[in-house]
Known about the structure:
- With 499 residues, the protein is of the alpha+beta class.
- 20% of the residues lie in helices and 32% in strands.
- The protein is globular, with a radius of gyration of 25 Å.
- 41% of the residues are buried.
- It binds adenosine-5'-triphosphate (ATP).
Amino acid sequence: MESSRPVPSASPDTTYPASDSDVESNATSAYDVAPMDLKYSDGELSWASADSSSHVLRLKDEEIAIVTAKAAGGYQVLYIPPPETSVDKQPFELRSISLTHLPGPFLDAHLFKALPTWLDPADGKNIHVLVSTLSGTGLAPAFYDAVLLPLLTAVGLSSSSYTTIKTESADSVKDFAKSTLLAGANAGKQQTVLMLSGDGGMVDTINGLLEDEQRSSNYTKPVLVQLPLGTGNALFHSLHKTPNPSIASPYIQGLRTLLYGTPKPLPILSAEFSSGTRVLSNEGQTASPIPKSTLYGAVVASYGLHATLVADSDTTEYRKHGRDRFGIAANNLLFPEGPEGKAFPHAYRAEVTLLRGQDEIKVPRKTHGYVLATLVSNLEKGFTISPDSEPLDSQLRVVHFGATSGLQAMEVMKAAYGNGSHIGMEWQGEAGVEEEGKTMKLGYEAVDGVKIEFQEPGEDWKWRRCCVDGLIVGVEEGGWMVVKKVPQGRECVDVVIDA
Ligand SMILES: Nc1ncnc2c1ncn2[C@@H]1O[C@H](COP(=O)(O)OP(=O)(O)OP(=O)(O)O)[C@@H](O)[C@H]1O
């Protein structure tokens, strides 16, 4: 094992050649390792370093993004090491190792062979990379520069083969979808978008494509590939519901899906509202009308604690906390200050009706804590709100419970973080709630739709806010929302999944 010999990197700068698929950079270490000195077992490639026969370098399967064969011979291994613990550091860094030889089983597992159809520009396909600059904690531009650009170069996709769009405002994604994508889809053009965003990038794209309903008979669904750069990344984690245990990093999962996945129609839901409803943006300062009073989503439509939490936590200040923003906002919502100290969370007044075939089933309570219709299993990686939902199963499910104490609502949420064990939960209604002294039960049912008629009084829509995939709407006094699944065959995009 002592014969590993580091050799200098071919090109000592960090620029990536546009036309050559071999990537060399500062982060590249090159090794000429004799085949007999390389070991690949238990998902780990290892070999001895040059300076000490006892020091063994190790590379785990789960760290490897891709292996390419170099034109000049030998191989390039691109990998993302585990993130450093320091919070100031980026959670991703693409490193590269050049090796003259690699074991056959390792190559069988990782060697890249050809571009998938959705990344192959040969047939005039339009490929776009959409970088949502404010998604999550703002890491998408850095991910593009440090990871995606060099990886695409390594697989032979030079930056001139695609266009890169960096968002400049909250309207950038929707504008791009309405102009470029919709026009291309209606002209029958094949288009692929690599989305460096969270669920917001997806919902803006879907609404941009659907809101004018101008679909031609030639309409060709754009293919979207998600790279999880948002906060919750609900759709991404739900589509990767059974994570390959050998891939810990969602970035590596996303990159492997990008190169080896399969495009499938993405089921979507519609949320139709009464005419006075407005989309609230800019921390609630801007209220915009909704075209045809209908929004579309691929994840969730909700009212009650979930919607209020998403709305309250979507401020510049809260966003700095990343995923923790939900927890901080939840504390204020679940344990508000009352006249005598901590009070119960708001009891949301509405009539909720579940729609199933021709049946309309009224939920027998006047006040609610949580009403959430979803097409997916997870709202975050570890938050399994609908454990029965399978990727792309096209089934709308509703999770709901009545107004309750903050502590009890927290118990439900904790159980959802515990692999979806909130399903079937029962508890005694506390003093002061509508169902006081009764057995309260978490409702969970497969439905065709759900209708909510709001009975909260007053002009302020604070307690009549709903969430559709992170978009927040305010419904007018006496207004309503009807959520349904968009029929199969009316999907507007394909999404690449890891199957
Ligand atoms: N340059 C920008 N200026 C203003 N708003 C932006 C800009 N870039 C992106 N946005 C907005 O930021 C939001 C980011 O949403 P996105 O869902 O991608 O991330 P997230 O909310 O952090 O993640 P998730 O929805 O997965 O929890 C979107 O509403 C998008 O329109």
